[in-house]
Amino acid sequence: MNITYKTDQLPDTASIIDLYASSGLSRPIDDSGRIESMYYHSNLVISAWDGPLLVGVSRALTDFHYCCYLSDLAVRKEYQKAGIGKQLVGLTKEAIGDRCMLLLLAAPSAMDYYPRIGMDTVNNGFIIKRAK
Fold it and tell me: pLDDT band at residue 131, thresholds of 50, 70 and 90?
């Protein structure tokens, strides 16, 4: 397995949807226009590739100086536990720099994962949930 990471290429929408379906990450994969718009409006996307196959993605919104919200971290099911997610988080942190914090909301099934890769738990957040 020879994984390459890219910061200069947005994956096509069909590949992103296929990745989400494989990864177990719940996203609106039945609405390709919404997925496409999610990526169009994100300003930091790092992708992981095994040849032509998209195997992982980190999608974030950031100002690159103070805060970064890591909205999506997804790795294709058969590539999980190979360090790809940890590498994507590391590359995201590298891209935003040391003066910028990295925040994410974990899927319930991933609550144990993030502390294992060095992230701290926060208990001071609030949310207004999406209607759709």
Answer: confident
